[in-house]
Design brief:
There is one protein chain. With about 500 residues, the chain is an all-alpha fold. The protein is built from 20 helices and 4 strands. It folds into 3 domains: about 15-140 and about 225-355, no CATH class; about 380-460, no CATH class; about 460-510, no CATH class. The termini are far apart. It is a multi-pass membrane protein.
Length: about 500
Amino acid sequence: MATSQAPDAAARPAPARPEDEYLGIGKSLAYGAQHVLTMYGGIIAPPLIVGAAAGADTTQIGLLVASCLFVGGLATILQSVGVPWFGSQLPLVQGTSFASVATLVAIVHGGSGIQAAFGAVLASAALGLLITPVFARIIRFFPPVVTGTVITVIGLSLMPVAANWAMGGNRQADDYGSMSNVLLAGFTLVVVLVLSRANVPAISRLSILLAIVVGTLGAWAIGMANFSGVGSGPVFAVPTPLAFGPPIFEVAAIISMFIVVLVILTETAADIIAVGEIVETDIDRKRIGDGLRADMGSSMLAPFFNGFTQSAFAQNVGLVAITGVKSRFVVTAGGAILVVLGLLPILGRVVAAIPTPVLGGAGIVLFGTVAAAGIRTLAKVEYAGNMNLVIVATSVGAGLIPIAAPTFWDSFPTWWGTIFHSGISSAAVVAILLNIWFNEIRFARQKPGSSVFVEAGRHIDLAEAQWIRNLREGDRIENGRIVDKDGTEVPLLDADGKPVRLGAEQSGHDH
């Protein structure tokens, strides 16, 4: 029996690109809200930290938070909708970059306060905008061996964030790491997994959002959620432009922030390519350039509305992967919700009341999905007769160093630490350079059999090698033939009884 279909859905032609699909207002808002909940903790953390470092009072910190939500929403809309030269037109959520927090705090303490931080953001973003054409030309240096590595490290580097959220988020709190916090995160994780298994597509795709709601209700029932502060403060407030005064430009602050901008450009380029892999759409240098210009353009706008550097949020890339919702208009709806949250602080206070462990439980699935997407990309890489194995191994190792040992680069110059303290940028830089060295520069390419890593990439096709069942203890492969422990050749026959001689792929040697 034919299934019924809504007239508008039946008449609507299939989009040329997966990301151009429009799901309607209702679904777009629901999925967009899921994006907002996924990144809400990350977008409000920088203004909280920088505001406290600047000695701002509660009202001023509230203004910073609202401003960052407002600017993040505008930046998300620009990135997903796109205008000429600005916006990748991909489902990428923008927000205040956490990579800039340490540098912003240093500027606030060592310069002219928060005004110097705003000036550094404005000037460095302008410089970043000027150099985006250079970054737009690196697409050829991002083959699957690079993109798969970076995507994997993006997911792995976010796991400490999920673990911290699951433990309570505030390391100074008395209940940080308590069993109740961890169990609440575990409960939310279980709800995500159960709802993801639902046979109703709407429930399955909204599993993250519904699990956060269920987790919050469960926390409220046992006294771990507090909504008493939702009614305090104004309901509506427009972020006041230049509320802290005009930006102050200091050379040292601009230079240090420009280094951060280089990191942000690297991470955003990686996120653009990552979400392109997940959505299964074409990513070219123009699209990367438009996305990076949206990044820098919104970062230039941010200081005028009391905001900081903007970048794509990796955790939302994971949400795209886990839900399978590829529409960029869903992210546009999320951007609109962020703008509303920036204008209606009361709504922001409702979202802020969600217990951090609940976000941690959902984050485990989200961030793990990003890593899994990277592993899936790496599975497509050819490892036979090349050095791709050592590229992946070294790059993943470099990306995990800041995660395993956060103080590893503390004795190095500040500019070096700023770049390599991020596992994502560390992995990206190392993977790009090693790919150029081993795969682009001709004289550096390894000949077959000349490296243990080249040999490690070779494999035996077990489906075709029926003869492998006849091997005995002491047999070995030499120059395309099998010999026994005495050096006598062992005759090989395939499944049809025909003689077989091993090729380079089976033997690990050239003829």
